Amino acid sequence: MQTYLKIFLSITGAFGILHVLSLFIFMVNPQFFYFRAWEYFTDLVYTGQVPPVWNGTEWEDLTRNHFFYYQASRHTTVTTDGDGFRITAKQPAARYPVLMTGDSNIFGSGLSDQETLPWQLSEQLGIPVFNGSRSSLGNVLKRQELQQVRLVIECLIERNLSNSSNPANQTMTTTDGYQPITRHDKGYLEILTNIPVNRYSLPHRATALFKRFQADWKVFRKGGAEPYSIMRYTLHPEELTRDVAQVVARQATLQQMGIAYIFVPIPSKQRLYADNLDEFTREYTNRFIDQLRKRDITTIDLVTPMLAHKDEGLFFRHDTHWNEKGAALAAQVIAREVRTVQPPLE
């Protein structure tokens, strides 16, 4: 009995030492434990006093599920202001004529600051453009620097148009006060107590590593990794009706506030690169654009230019987001259209 007790205590002690060691490593270099910058910001920056800067390696989405396959990475620099909003060119500014809002493509998942769409649009228009992603449109418009905003450009990929979990789709309330993304209400040690143990614990990460090897084995048995991974989904007519109504309501609200509105549907990765899509899903974004234009909503077509340039590789190979080439092309198209349809915004 004593022998079994000693073995149990030895194993428990070893796991305890590994856990404490991994926590110490996490405190010294937390970025080592994260695949994506936005996860780091969510766990550490948005909850407390951690400096709002990421300067490290980001991995494409499928990397976390494998060890040998899908190991695509790049170095990025991600910076936010004190309230948690991603910085852009010409920032900080006393006022912003243009607010760009939307999903994680607008935040710039996997991109450095200067590669994001709002940053590049700011440079091309020569005026400050505020990146309002990761918060609701109604909340962002309450910022002091956006009290005189003249144009809102909303960009959403088709599967996020009616996604209630996407902050951009939250109701535009007018009664609540402005709420920053960063709360500044916790110290670093308090933050650590709320970090999931499996984020940094070496025993947990060893288990995750074993699962990654298992996933590699399944890929190997199927003949190797796919050169280009795609999230597949199907869209339906009732979703088109709902999405159009949502954008129409958004424009009506902004018109009452005296703010011009442009909607930009972002083509999905499957729209550009997937085969065997059903006809409605393939043409969903084009139908959506047509429906909005019939209702006199200024809408920018990214499908046509992206199809023309898709062979250049506009999305990360093993991720759902566009890469620096896709964001750069979108910035060029949007800047050209804004100059055409809008009076000078300086």
Essential attributes:
2 domains; Rossmann fold; alpha/beta; 11% strand; two-stranded antiparallel sheet; five-stranded parallel beta sheet; 346 residues
Number of domains: 2
Structural class: alpha/beta
Along the chain, the helix and strand elements come as: HHEEEHHEHEHHHHEHHHEHH
The CATH architecture of the largest domain would be 3-Layer(aba) Sandwich
Which overall shape is indicated by the principal axes computed on the Cα atoms? globular
Number of strands: 7
CATH topology of the largest domain, anyone?
Rossmann fold
Distance between the termini: 81 Å
Q: Helical stretch count?
A: 14
Give the strand order, joined by hyphens, for the main sheet: 4-3-5-6-7
Strand content: 5-15%
What summary fits the major beta sheet? 5 strands, parallel
User: Could you name the ranges where pLDDT drops below 50 across 5 or more consecutive residues?
Assistant: none
Report the mean per-residue pLDDT as an integer. Answer: 88
The helicity comes to: 40-55%
What's the CATH class of the largest domain, please?
Answer: Alpha Beta
CATH superfamily of the largest domain: SGNH hydrolase
Cα gyration radius (Å): 23 Å
Summarize the structure.
By secondary structure, the protein is of the alpha/beta class.
What does this structure look like?
The chain is of the alpha/beta class. The protein folds into 2 domains: 2-53 and 185-221, no CATH class; 77-173 and 227-341, 3-Layer(aba) Sandwich (Rossmann fold). The chain has helices at 2-28, 37-45, 104-107, 117-125, 137-140, 188-192, 197-200, 202-221, 237-256, 269-273, 279-282, 284-294, 303-309, 324-341; strands at residues 53-59, 73-79, 98-102, 129-131, 151-157, 260-266, 298-299. Strands 4-3-5-6-7 form a 5-stranded parallel β-sheet, sandwiched between helices. Strands 1-2 form a two-stranded antiparallel sheet.
